[in-house]
Specification:
288 residues, alpha/beta, Rossmann fold, 2 domains, 5-stranded parallel beta sheet, 11 strands, elongated, plasmid
């Protein structure tokens, strides 16, 4: 781990923070959002004259385990790096977490929800979002206790997140008396869901989707086929540009959608509204 006293820039100690996320490829927009947030935090910290100058060092892991390993190795080898913010994809982070642990380098995850990240004994790993089992429990409680849902089709993306989120939902839903009528896996990037929706049994009252990029086309295919059941999904679909915007009117048709947000509404958490008003003038983020 870096000794900040040996890294000076003028009168200010220099501390470097590694930011590893997909900056290119399908998940790039999600990774860039995360990297921008770190950049904003660095700017704010550097505006405070406390004798420390922070620098964010970006590495593009492309959402790929091999690329993630390259980025991790380069940052671990850099004596000026204090710690890591990342990765975005669960499979990538799980593949490299032991490397960071062996190097005594902190790994702070803003978005990773896989249980193994904090259940594997790595004392250098910290997370800022809910685990998949917690998310699944909250969604299942709402669906069964408040909405009376009992018979579900689940559609899962064939990714580490898609499988873990869906597995946890299946367990939680069954514990509350629900039944899984059909369980379907699709490849990431699938956009045609007409035939799949046509295979849904008639005696269901819910569709659950576990994944990130396929939620909007799945929902639109359901509404086009006159399947009006509620579509419930985890925090992989909480953002506007990836789910609600491409889903368009379909998100409000029939029974609509139930999405667990990765964060509370602005204004609920003390200071969040002031923070948002501080962020927007910087021009890096859209007004919420």
């Amino acid at each position: 781990m870096v000794d900040a006293t040996k890294n000076r820039s003028g009168d200010r100690k220099r501390m470097r923070i590694g930011v590893v996320a997909p900056l290119t490829g399908r998940p790039a927009d999600l990774g860039i959002e995360m990297a921008q947030a770190v950049g904003l935090a660095v700017e704010d910290a550097n505006d405070t004259p406390d004798g420390i100058l922070f620098e964010a060092i970006r590495r593009d892991d492309k959402g790929d385990e091999a690329e993630g390993a390259k980025g991790a190795s380069s940052l671990i080898a850099d004596d000026g790096v204090l710690g890591i913010v990342g990765h975005y994809n669960s499979n990538v982070a799980l593949a490299v977490a032991q490397r960071y642990c062996d190097a005594s380098m902190a790994l702070i995850s803003p978005i990773l929800s896989n249980l193994r990240l904090t259940d594997s004994g790595w004392n250098n790993v910290f997370r800022f979002t809910s685990r998949d089992d917690v998310t699944a429990s909250i969604i299942s409680d709402r669906l069964t206790a408040e909405m009376g849902k009992r018979r579900a089709v689940v559609v899962r993306t064939n990714t580490a997140y898609g499988h873990r989120m869906t597995d946890e939902f299946v367990h939680a839903f069954r514990r509350r008396g629900g039944s899984i009528v059909q369980d379907i896996a699709v490849e990431e990037g699938t956009t045609e869901f007409g035939a799949l929706v046509g295979s849904f049994p008639k005696d269901i009252d819910l569709v659950f989707y576990g994944g990130t990029f396929e939620g909007a086309p799945l929902l639109k295919a359901m509404r086009a086929a006159k399947v009006g059941h509620l579509l419930a999904t985890g925090d992989g679909c909480w953002d506007g540009w990836n789910f609600l915007e491409p889903a368009g009117e379909a998100a409000e048709q029939d029974e609509g959608v139930l999405v667990l947000s990765a964060c509370l509404e602005i204004g609920v958490v003390q200071g969040s509204r002031e923070f948002a008003l501080h962020v927007v003038p910087k021009g890096r983020f859209k007004q919420i």
